[in-house]
Design goal:
- The protein has 213 residues and is α/β, with parallel strands linked by helices.
- Helix 4 runs parallel beside helix 5.
- The chain has nine helices and eight strands.
- It is globular.
- A hairpin with a 5-residue loop joins strand 5 and strand 6.
- It has one domain: 3-Layer(aba) Sandwich (Rossmann fold), CATH 3.40.50.
- The structure holds adenosine monophosphate.
- Adenosine monophosphate binds next to helix 2 and helix 3.
């Protein structure tokens, strides 16, 4: 079963996706992570992507679709994909449907994490990610875990788009363009909404409950 994890930036989609991957043998398809990987190549395409991401703007569908296709077409991940950060627009909903259809798959379940704007700000401004294992922690809330992290605390980096100005613009784009997608998804797929302000393990327990039905 393919799953769409939905929610504003900083809702905890990546954190929960990583936990689902570990527990339930899924594959996390984070379009943000895939795009950031491209930027590290410092190619012409990478630089173009970096400039869009750093302003909080969407990367073109043409680029994102290519990355999606590579994963969806891979038999290894068949019916075990968690979409994290996709779809973000109605066009992307249509494209996802077509792409999954092409490979005889569909998205069946949507889990939406709801978090108010004030909390998102704090979460994103403090967010750091381990360059080695991709674990995300928060400088305000997890200083001890960062200190004791098995890869070493020197590998934690901040995303360039995690500054207050860009966060506000990403949140506005989410409200205007991405949230309406939820109306469509909630009517057409199996849909669950979870309060994303709860503790990480409480949210994971709720997701476990949904996946074990
Ligand atoms: P995220 O890691 O999901 O917060 O995404 C970081 C940034 O990557 C976004 O602010 C966009 O610039 C870009 N991005 C991620 N997913 C998409 C998408 N589905 N469509 C367009 N741009 C995206």
């Amino acid at each position: 079963m393919n799953i769409i994890l939905f929610g504003p930036p900083g809702a905890g989609k990546g954190t929960q996706a990583q936990l689902i991957v570990k527990k339930h043998n899924y594959f996390q398809l984070s379009t943000g992570d895939l795009l950031r990987k491209e930027t590290k190549k410092k190619s012409e395409l990478g630089l173009k992507i970096e400039s869009l991401i750093s302003k909080g703007n969407f990367v073109s569908d043409e680029i994102v679709n290519q990355l999606l296709r590579e994963t969806i077409s891979n038999l290894k991940y068949r019916d075990r994909i968690i979409f994290d950060g996709y779809p973000r627009t109605i066009d992307q909903v249509i494209n996802l449907d077509e792409l999954l259809n092409e490979f005889n798959q569909k998205a069946e379940l949507v889990i939406s994490l709801s978090v108010p704007r004030e909390i998102i700000e704090k979460r994103i401004i403090g967010r750091v990610t381990c360059e080695k294992c991709n674990m995300t922690l928060n400088e305000f809330f997890n200083s001890r875990e960062i200190e004791l992290h098995p890869c070493g605390n020197q590998h934690f980096i901040k995303r360039k788009d995690d500054n207050l100005t860009t966060v506000m613009s990403r949140y506005d784009i989410y409200k205007k363009t991405t949230q309406p997608v939820l109306d469509y998804l909630s009517k057409n797929l199996r849909f669950y909404e979870i309060d994303g302000t709860q503790k990480i393990d409480e949210i994971t327990a709720k997701i476990d409950g949904i996946l074990n039905v």
